[in-house]
């Protein structure tokens, strides 16, 4: 065999290996594990069904799924109606689910708004009949609820585990719309919600020296302090400036987290509560998040606005915006305005 023939054979072998590798990757299911509702409308063509499965992250390649269904003769056996499919299933299992409605369980839509705590999420899920409240709260206290891979992705190290957090899962339950079955296990529900957080934050680049967990902690404070998305990066910048200068964050939200019920206005005795979460008496971030931040808060914490502000206070004029100040003297002027606190 001459050198040119060898070269062609090598190139051909590389192309074959690449194609095989690509097919294996595309055929493998996405890493998500959530169960979601999937509706097939009457007279839907299989090409549309495959595209919708891809859009809902059940499959990676509509073309290969279409080819597999044709090869196995399953194309004509799909049934119109609402199906419940588990993400992470292979082609065979998905086509089995789509071919019948007999084994379907009702998927319940649950909306988890941004800014909720573990307790509030437990109450909402319990009310919907998804999970037992006490079981959820108990499971949410344990770091072991997360897999080793999840802990690594979220920057949860031994130092974090040894800190005095109220709930290990606080801030890690991503606010979103979910489809759950009734009477699920708490760890299964939590796993789906933390996986959603990891997925949503995969492409976020942290532009400070924070760990991912510290970024989530800061984002949870921003979530409770900012009512306007356009102010979140500016508020994040205030907190980062104070952290870098060694100043206490003095966030009212960290104190509210310690109260049984939130107050419209904190009293002097409230800001003296002895707790590592109280940023009026402790420097640095609290031990962990105080709520579940949304994506805009997470992005703000990862990429704070650069400025010289060290203070902010609500305007209380119905705009939900804030006054920002560079000096304490200027800040006092705003806090003394009628209606401010």
Element layout with pairings:
Layout (H helix, E strand, L loop, with lengths): L2 H25 L7 E6 L5 H10 L6 H11 L8 E6 L4 H8 L9 E4 L6 H10 L5 H8 L7 H6 L4 H5 L14 E4 L5 H16 L10 H14 L6 H14 L6 H5 L38 H8 L8 E4 L7 E4 L2 H8 L6
Helix pairs in contact: 2-3, 5-6, 10-11, 10-13, 11-13
Give the gist of this structure.
With 341 residues, the protein is mainly alpha-helical. It has helices at residues 3-27, 46-55, 62-72, 91-98, 118-127, 133-140, 148-153, 158-162, 186-201, 212-225, 232-245, 252-256, 295-302, 328-335, and strands at residues 35-40, 81-86, 108-111, 177-180, 311-314, 322-325. Its EC number is 4.2.2.29.
Please tell me about this protein's structure.
The chain is mainly alpha-helical and 341 residues long. It has a domain at 212-335. Helix content is 43%, strand content 8%. It has helices at residues 3-27, 46-55, 62-72, 91-98, 118-127, 133-140, 148-153, 158-162, 186-201, 212-225, 232-245, 252-256, 295-302, 328-335, and strands spanning 35-40, 81-86, 108-111, 177-180, 311-314, 322-325. The chain has a two-stranded antiparallel sheet. A hairpin with a 7-residue loop joins strand 5 and strand 6 (322-325). Helix 11 crosses helix 13. The radius of gyration is 25 Å and the shape is globular. It comes from Fictibacillus halophilus. It catalyses: a peptidoglycan chain = a peptidoglycan chain with N-acetyl-1,6-anhydromuramyl-[peptide] at the reducing end + a peptidoglycan chain with N-acetylglucosamine at the non-reducing end. InterPro entries: MLTG-like.
